[in-house]
Amino acid sequence: xxxxxxxxxxxxxxxxxxxxxxxxxxxxxxxxxxxxxxxxxxxxxxxxxxxxxxxxxxxxxxxxxxxxxxxxxxxxxxxxxxxxxxxxxxxxxxxxxxxxxxxxxxxxxxxxxxxxxxxxxxxxxxxxxxxxxxxxxxxxxxxxxxxxxxxxxxxxxxxxxxxxxxxxxxxxxxxxxxxxxxxxxxxxxxxxxxxxxxxxxxxxxxxxxxxxxxxxxxxxxxxxxxxxxxxxxxxxxxxxxxxxxxxxxxxxxxxxxxxxxxxxxxxxxxxxxxxxxxxxxxxxxxxxxxxxxxxxxxxxxxxxxxxxxxxxxxxxxxxxxxxxxxxxxxxx
Length: 332
Description:
Layout: E1 2-6, H1 10-21, E2 25-29, H2 33-42, E3 44-45, E4 49-53, E5 59-62, H3 65-69, E6 74-77, H4 84-94, E7 100-103, H5 116-124, E8 129-133, H6 138-141, E9 147-153, H7 156-166, E10 171-176, H8 179-202, H9 207-227, H10 238-249, H11 254-263, H12 268-274, H13 280-294, H14 300-310, H15 315-323
Parallel strand pairs: 1-2, 1-6, 2-5, 6-7, 7-8, 9-10
Antiparallel strand pairs: 3-4, 8-9
Helix pairs in contact: 4-5, 8-9, 8-10, 8-11, 8-13, 8-14, 9-10, 13-14, 14-15
């Protein structure tokens, strides 16, 4: 199988290593030629996945998109959500025709509020679009820590082939046909992870508070997702509660890291300017809040995170406001 992986961040690099070690012919595309040369020379991604050696066999690193996708059977898109449409347009111009496209981004498009699979379907006019999601920090996948994820798409026969192609003894893949649920879970969990980081930054990220935040964050995820057509049970799986727990608690979580710095009093601008990697929750917060308001879905945690990110609200004041809301029954 010939695989093209577009995006040489930590996640794209980790999957390139995984697939190359399975013996597939893999081309990893880096946007900048100098970065591609560095990866090829060092056989290590010192910027996004330091300390993980890349195999010399079966893995080619390129900066030409046409070269990366030539004769590819599967194209995996490991680019940020804000770059997905641009890359899809370029792929359309190149007339790339793989058997399947696999989205790896966990976000929503800023203006249209579309999921990544919807963006790809619009631009590529293909039904063979899948999303891979779940608790899967690149730092652990790259070091062969046991990881389980979910692959979602509409063509389950093709999905079964991809499922087997991706699996290793340390990387387990489940299959789902709830593409909406898997993608909304991946987007909303990043918003809640920002809130978890804010809690930590304020010094209130104890076990009680973090557990409550995850539980009520899950409630927001379920309410929005079901309203938008996803299945409730999807959010109790890997792409929902599984990824939510990992992202809210992990030292590797970029979104939790951003929230932590916000809780410590830094501005969003200075945080973003100091980061090499993308924290999808920054963009997802705006999109998720807009969807919640458009469909009248109650999401108080999301509203609080939005206020801190985009309205300059005081994080402690937002926490106090959440804790002193009117008493109510617990409803998921």
